[in-house]
Write a structure and sequence with these properties.
This protein is an alpha/beta fold. It has 6 helices and 7 strands; from the N terminus they run H-E-E-H-E-H-E-H-E-H-E-E-H. Strand 3, helix 3 and strand 4 form a beta-alpha-beta unit.
């Protein structure tokens, strides 16, 4: 049973509900996808961790919730926090973020989780315009530098289904865990810009590495067929 302190979830979050959500995530993964994890052993076993992952589908977050080996608080777009789903998301300790608005409340809540030794997840790629992507990347770097959290990049491929494409039966999804990294502690706008670029480049390189792995696996399957 997980005995992590409730401080590792934002106020109002229930660790019991969070554990239940992780079980739902596992059920979703086993029933709907064939997930291959690459180098999950790289994930830090203790201490504050900021997860940064690429984002191509609404299912990325729910899958990661059960795959990341520790309870994780995700920064999720505010529009998801409506009706019963919003009540559920708050109960399991997730944080709403308003795109394009200067709202530091969720970032401050995320800082408290990280300083308590917890795990926070963010999708710095975003799913919208360039401005949202840039803001999310700066937020990721700012969170890591403000708390000393280890940055854990994760690349995801296989959840995206183009509009109009036929529904797939348990598609192959791959997740590659990158090498954890520490961002420099230097302050100032220039240092933040450098840290932001490092987060961006590390994640981009990891996604490219996962694409190569998937390509090699497909070629091998073709040769074995």
């Amino acid at each position: 049973m997980n005995t992590l302190p409730s401080a590792q979830l934002p106020g109002g979050g229930s660790m019991r509900m969070h554990r239940g959500a992780r079980l739902i995530s596992t059920a979703l993964r086993l029933s709907s996808y064939r997930v291959q994890l690459h180098r999950q052993d790289r994930f830090p076993a203790a201490g504050p961790v900021l997860v940064v992952a690429n984002h191509s589908s609404i299912f990325d977050g729910p899958l990661l919730l059960g795959i990341i080996p520790r309870p994780t608080v995700f920064l999720i777009k505010y529009e998801m926090f409506r009706g019963p789903l919003g009540v559920f998301l708050r109960a399991i300790g997730q944080l709403p973020v308003r795109r394009g608005e200067p709202d530091r409340t969720p970032l401050l809540a995320a800082i408290r989780v990280l300083r308590a030794g917890g795990v926070v997840g963010i999708f710095p790629e975003g799913t919208r315009g360039v401005g949202d992507v840039a803001a999310a990347q700066r937020g990721a770097a700012w969170l890591a530098r403000s708390t000393g959290a280890t940055v854990q990049p994760i690349a995801i491929r296989g959840t995206y289904r183009p509009t109009g494409a036929p529904r797939r039966v348990r598609p192959q999804v791959d997740m590659l865990f990158g090498e954890p990294l520490q961002l420099p502690e230097a302050r100032g706008k220039e240092a933040l810009a450098e840290a932001t670029e490092r987060v961006r480049s590390e994640l981009a390189e990891l996604v490219a590495e996962l694409d190569r792995i998937r390509g090699e696996l497909k070629r091998k399957e073709g040769l074995d067929a």
